[in-house]
Every structure is written in structure tokens, then in C-alpha cells.
Amino acid sequence: MNSYRLHTEIEIAATPEHVWSILTDFPFYPEWNPFIVSINGDIKHGAKLQVRIQPNGGRAMTFRPRLVVVQPGKELRWLGQFLFRNLFDGEHRFAIEPIADGRVRFTQSEHFSGLLLPLFQKSLAQNTKTGFEAMNRAIKARAET
Fold first, then answer.
1. TM spans, by residue (predicted)?
2. What is the per-residue pLDDT across 4-17, written as a single tens digit (0 to 9) for each?
3. Could you list the residue range(s) of the whole structural domain that residue 85 is in?
């Protein structure tokens, strides 16, 4: 089966708890997040979210992934599927890792797979990766002010 990974990271001068509080404060996403413009849903394992993304140069899209990992201060991960499993799946991961006193590495990555992946791979490599990087810079700016 086709598979593709995106990986971005940024260092942030903040505690893991502070970065987590921004990452999981979904109602404030429209104020600061240029890529994921809204998320609705409960932050608990197994919960369904409603996520709206606006890739730079791409079309806005809403999807409904299920949370598969919720580790406060460490990791938030969801799995989204288009129509049904193995057609076009994306497992999105946010990780917060302490690297020094008062600093963290914030990683945003996604593993894509499925039969339709070849149709979307160019857009993922350009627009989606650019969106991840823009969000990383925005969460850094918010956490450090």
C-alpha cells in the first residue's frame, strides 16, 4: 500500500504544560492558528473531532478524525479517514518533548496511506507541509509571548 510521511519540528521556549494548554485550547484556534482554523470536540481517547484546515494555496477542508492518543503535556494524535479505511488515511501527531530547562521540541507529523494517496501526494508535500510549518511558528509565537 502507498505511504507518505510529513515531519516538521520547532523549538519553543516554554514548558510542556504551557504548549499543551495552547494546543488543546481549541476555541482559540481561530485567533492564532493559520492552518488548523477550527477544532471542535472533547479531548479524550476515542472522541471524534471536527477539524477544519486551510492549507496555504489549497482548499479549506473539514474532516472528522478520532483521537487515538491523549497524553497531557506529551502527545495528541488522531486518525482520519476519507469515506472508509485504506482509501485515504492520515494519522496526525503532535508531540511535545522537553529538551532543556524551559524549552521543548514541538513536532507535528502525519503518516498518510491509502489507495488515493498518489492523487494527493504533491499537494501534501507542498501545501500541507507549509501549513504544518506555519502552525509551528504560530504556536511558538503564542507560547513565547
1. none
2. 799 999 999 999 99
3. 3-144
Domain count of the chain? 1
Three-state secondary structure call for residue 144: helix
Instruction: For residue 88, give the nearest of 2, 9, 18, 29 by alpha carbon.
Output: 2
Q: Mind listing the pLDDT tens digit for each residue in 64-82?
A: 999 999 999 999 999 987 7
CA distance 70 to 53: 20
Domain of 106, CATH number, reads 3.30.530.20
Beta pairing partners, 39: 51
Task: Write the CA distances from 88 to 38, 63, 114, 132, integer angstroms.
Answer: 21, 12, 4, 19
Q: How many CB atoms lie within 10 A of CB 143?
A: 20
Whole-prediction pTM value? Answer: 0.90
